[in-house]
Fold each of these.
Amino acid sequence: MPDPQTGPEDAQRPEAGHELVVVANRLPVDSRTLPDGATEWVTSPGGLVTAMESVMRTVDSGAWVGWAGGTGEAPSPFVADGMHLYPVPLDGHEVERYYEGFSNATLWPLYHDVIVDPEFHRTWWDDYQRVNRRFARAAAEVAAPGGIVWVHDYQLQLVPAMIRETRPDARIGFFNHIPFPPVELFSQLPKRNQILRGLLGADVLGFQREGDTLNFVAAVRKLLGYHTDGQTITVPGLGTAPSREVQARTFPISIDSQSVSDLTEDPDIQERARQLRADMGDPAKIVLGVDRLDYTKGIRHRLKAWGELLADGAIDPHDAVMIQVATPSRERVDAYRQLRDEVELTVGRINGDHAPIGRPAISYQHRSFDRRDMTALYMAADVVLVTALRDGMNLVAKEYVASRTDEQGVLVLSEFAGAADELRAALRVNPHDIDELKSSILRALAMGEDEQREAMTSLRRQVMDHDVQAWAHAFLDELESVGRDEITTRRIRLTGETPTPEAELEASLRTFAEVPRILVASDFDGVLAPIVAERDAVQPDPEAIVALRELSEMPGVSVALVSGRSLTNLDHHTRMPSSVVLVGSHGAEVGALPPWMHAEVLDSFALTMSPQKEQLLESITHTLHRIASANPGAEVETKPAAAVLHTRRARGRGAGNATEAALEYALSLPDVTVTPGKEVVEFSVVDANKGVAIEALARASAADAWLYLGDDVTDETVFDQLGDDDLGIKVGPGDTGAGLRVEGTAQVRELLTHLAALRRARG
Ligand code: ADQ
């Protein structure tokens, strides 16, 4: 970063929001308390920040949402180096359960091959969800319409779907910095499906290695049953939403290679490197390890190998010194405390047994170094040991390569680090095999200059050409290329519950009544009849029914009743004349049309069942019966092309449990239209909805405009089709695509009676 000093320059966010919003657990800043007690923010110069700086320069306005560290109230938003920072607060409990708990004691070990046992507590999961929701809300609030939101890492896996809920217009990307485990391991994770669904809220999911991407796709296929085609996943739409495509891709992360390389030209850093060697007693060889003090990094294995080489006499401690830099990490998590004790005990033992007087056999540094010191260390090191047991990428390996402009030095690299896929010229090891590790160390120490140069030249080509800027641009290019038309933006016209003012409703009705050819259509339950617990006890409002009948007999007016009920059931309860069209099963069944309507228009939309669909329906019905029998009171209704789970009469928590089980099951059925409604979940094997039905009826009746009344989420498919002259009327509370709202069935009765009167007066 050009200038690490930052202050609260300007907390104003652009009116229209930010074009690019990065969401990561941590903000790229650390706080520092000044002598006068004030807080100053200093940007922390990680690779991600550098990469983001480069891409943020290409957009008008960039933002970063993250935790500023510490507990309690978060600082107000501020600007640092042209980037708007939005701190997300965490309280002490959340740090314990969301961060140290679910993120670092459940997910981290599980995603790293269960090197230590993952621990799980349900309270941790509750906090993980709550904190993810907070991050999602913060990001959704500041992203510009159609803007890009890029979510990072395992702490925030639910955030993509949570953002999508409120911001379907945004392009959402997610990058997983750590490995994605094989499905056999991932399956152990409690809440695994929720995690997958959270991730699948993104348009593009990025992983470090090809193997990670394949693991993820396999988990989605196996655990959610979604259709996958290569690395493209089809996420079925729940309810009335259409399906979406999600791309899972491999983007190996890198470092700001040029700036690391440039540091080696700095005379002061060159001098530090020389001094370092001298401080170590000018040994023939310096072997270096740099890691966060984490059990995934294989520090114990490395120390064991080094200790044995000294004990065997294969290495003379006067000739070779090991420097182990171990950055303090997650010190409140048990496994990390234990690791630190163990590492320090081992280092102490090895030094006690082998160190010559006045200098160490292992120089152990448990603290942070700045970039310049780190570069000096890399320049001084003849061999760098990267012995991770599992690592997403491992940037240390790449930093070492970028620091060796002299084309000398040997990188010993674990095959379990992501970097092993690209850094082919490194000395590759299986760190679990201590004998192999020992012989690789000896080989590295003995390697001649020419061989070193040959390998290092090849490694440098790789690292210098593929830097972190290229990584970020590749990811964002993929995100940009996601087809816009696949992103459905459902239009919400009204929120809350306030009914449309009388005068506005009246004016709209008057205009509509003047249109020469109109279609008047309505949902049944909850609109023409109050909702009742016993479905068959439903009582339609007699006056509303009379008004509809009357309308259906007027010239230029077509009338339709649309319902989730089956056609026969709807007919039975409404007893409408043949001038009224009945549409059942959410549009999948259409009754006889009156003679003046063009039946052929409906051909393309007719109910079609194939033997495969019959079979599918049978298996769905079977599963729903199983869910119903586990939740007393829940019932299954079968229709010609659908099976429906009714939970109205389920007892106790049965309704919630049955619905949840049905929705979970729904996710495994990519070719089925699943429509959750009020205490019902409908599984339809034909692809029809009320919106399609109304559109077809409007065409068949040659209507110039239509009016539709609906109370349910299934009615939103109709409101999605509203044209300028059409009237969408939502009955009751809730967000809706309708332009008008009335309170309940009593108002529907008044409205229909009034419309009939207006139309009658028109003549
Ligand atoms: P980490 O597990 O933190 O990152 P790594 O890739 O090795 O691992 O990055 C560590 C960074 O910290 C390097 O830039 C290194 O120079 C720096 N560092 C280490 N010790 C230091 C010290 N004492 N002082 C100062 N700096 C120090 C996670 C994944 C990795 C993945 C990265 C990036 O676990 O697999 O490579 O994210 O995606």
Amino acid sequence: MSDGRALARAFLEQQRLLGGDPVILPDGATQGAPGTPGLRPGSVGAQATATPTSGTPGASSGNTSARPAPAADLPPPGLSFDPPGGDLFSNDPIPQAPSLAAIAQLVAACTTCRLCEGRRHTVPGEGPGDAQLLVVGEGPGRVEDETGRPFVGPAGELLTKILAAIELPRERVFICNIVKCRPPENRQPQYDEIAACVPYLFRQIEIVKPKVILAMGGTAAQTLLNTKQSLGALRNQVHRFRGTPVIVTYHPAALLRNPNWKKPTWDDVRIARRLIG
Ligand code: URA
Ligand code: SF4
């Protein structure tokens, strides 16, 4: 019983952090099964998912149901990208790298694009090799470049909270970026830099075999889905990368500037959570 209360309290706090409406629990509202706070239809979070599908291009096109989708429904399928994998007969070391550590070593020595020039540390990514969720951002920022770790600056702190909110502590998630070296002044990585770096990410995904990929921000989404569609158009669909579901949401750095996007982000990460099971 007290377990249920504690979970409910934690859930409401997370909901507040993510910009949800304030909610007051009626007395004794602990009847929810412990371990599933907020994921049941009719719970607080369900209200947040009721609205955002309308008006989003793509969200309605694949939806054949006349009724509004219940909260537990998944969004319609979206794009599918199947880049070719490693060729057994090639001697390119990236697609042959046997482990995440081997990829990190290759990245540490990499000078394939100009981003190597200004870096202090490479930031290959981190997390368990059998993570169920793989999060992809854009590229290292200042703190990441200083430490060699992904998402440890202000955006990273928000990401850590978002992951806690779906009961996936960041230690259980593989977290990485499209480019592994910091772009000068945090500018967006350029097309040729992304093209040079993305084989590392593709191999990381192949090794981790996550159940779900969460693409945070336009650069991650457009790269993983090989499209120029806007982030707004790509949200609210279940895309696929080599068959693995890809959920697209806002970048946490954008959320820091635009708190209005916290609620849609909450909806997106809950979809990712539901896909993990
Ligand atoms: N922003 C990103 O996209 N990645 C990081 O690692 C940090 C901030
Ligand atoms: Fe190599 Fe990627 Fe760094 Fe460019 S950004 S130097 S491709 S590791």
